[in-house]
Amino acid sequence: MTAPSETPPPAEAAAAPQKKEKKERKPQTGPPEGYEKKKQLTKAERRELQEKQRAAKAAAKGDAPEAKKGGDAKKAPGAAAPKGGGGKEPPAKDTPKPAAPKHTGVLAHLEATSKKKPPSNAHAAVEALGLRYAAGLHDGANERCVAMLAAFKEFVGDYQLAPNTTVNRDLDKKLKPQIQHLIDRRPLSASMGAAVRKLRRCIATLDPEMSAEDAKAALRDEIDAYARERIVLANEVIAKLASEKLRDGDVVVTFGRADAVESALYAAKAAGTTLRVVVVDAAPALEGRVLLRRLSAAGLDCAYCLLHAAPLHLKHATKVVLGADALFSNGAVLAAAGTAGVAMLASAQNVPVLACCEAYKFHDRVQLDSVASNELVDLDPKGKAPADGDKPRARARHLKYDVTPATFVSAIVSEHGLLPPSACAVLIREMGESEGKENPV
């Protein structure tokens, strides 16, 4: 009988070395040999790597992603040059020139209003007037309004009634592009807006059964009556009322040139009042020089100074008489830039300030500053635009108007009498109720 063998079974013998290996394995505390830590890529580097990978895949497939879209395929780095190209890359397309930077300052809305393209269906008289507006030939509020009414009178005279329509509908429809043409050339003043509203009301009230010739004659008469009553006669009444407030020996300070102020000084001279007039002026318009020449030719004792010297003359002034391009319902006066400074200086010296303004310039809008609605004047209108490649030159711009708060105005002189600035809202409401309100365009 043989003794049992001490050799372990095959299963146990196979498991034994594995147990031994587990006992001898040590935990790995560091990276394996030959391992290199990847460098942290930036966003730009990752994007560049992805582009290279896409280009390599496209080159391997022989079909670039741009070709699928129908565009020109970009040459991948390392790819073979196209046949017949001599190893040269195809010429790059002309890249478009970058657009001019847009004006984003506080006056951007004023810059945008002067770049509109006027329509081409304007009447010849309106087209010529728009060019004169853009050139600055008509500057005063009354002068601009009279010129506009004259152009509209020619337009009405040449009007032809369209078939199967009425005069009031067809004429108003054809008048809108004429108004818009003037607006695109230069924004309408308050006086022009009032005249446009009056003309459109007259067109709307025409009898539909009226013939075209009768309607045209009636409208031309209305235009003449409006210019005579609202501008000419109103100016005479204001001149008389303002001259009555001037006394012998007064030193009157005015700014720029205004039709109503000039008429008031002529009326005071005709009444025998001895005055001394100080004309304050400011760049770039320097309209006070025209007034100075006219007053001197009429025999008035005059002096002239620029705006920075106004405080010296206001110390000896007894009254300040100013013009106005518009009068708002809060009593603020819109006038040529520099008027507000003269009014504030006069208020500091306790000198009464009279603002002469025709009633048709009254506006029911409220404006608190000169930035919300204004016009930009180029100080170098004859300057040439820079050529391609030249550095853009700085363009000097100037605000056309400024707003004088009601606290610096003693009284408003209109054809309705002398009014405190606080009473303007009442007069505007009464005028609006009697005439109705309608937007110019």
Total number of helices: 14
Assembly state: single chain
From the spread of the alpha carbons, the general shape counts as flat
Q: Rg to the nearest angstrom? A: 40 Å
Please trace the helix and strand order, writing H or E for each element: HHHHHHHHHEHEHEHEEEHEEEEEEEH
Largest beta sheet: what is the strand line-up? 3-2-1-4-7-12-13
Biggest β-sheet: count, sense, barrel?
7 strands, mixed
Catalogue the unreliable spans: 1-6, 10-23, 64-88, 97-101, 383-387
Strand content: 5-15%
The amount of helix comes to 40-55%
Coiled coil: 209-236
InterPro entries: IF-2B-related (IPR000649), IF_2B-like_C (IPR042529), NagB/RpiA_transferase-like (IPR037171)
Region (Disordered): 1-102
Biased composition (Pro residues): 1-11
Summarize the helices and strands and which ones pair or pack:
Elements: H1 10-24, H2 43-61, H3 65-68, H4 108-113, H5 124-135, H6 141-157, H7 167-185, H8 190-204, H9 212-244, E1 250-255, H10 259-270, E2 275-281, H11 288-297, E3 301-306, H12 310-314, E4 319-323, E5 326-328, E6 333-336, H13 339-348, E7 353-356, E8 362-363, E9 376-378, E10 397-399, E11 401-404, E12 411-414, E13 417-419, H14 424-435
Parallel strand pairs: 1-2, 1-4, 2-3, 4-7, 5-8, 7-12
Antiparallel strand pairs: 5-6, 6-11, 9-10, 12-13
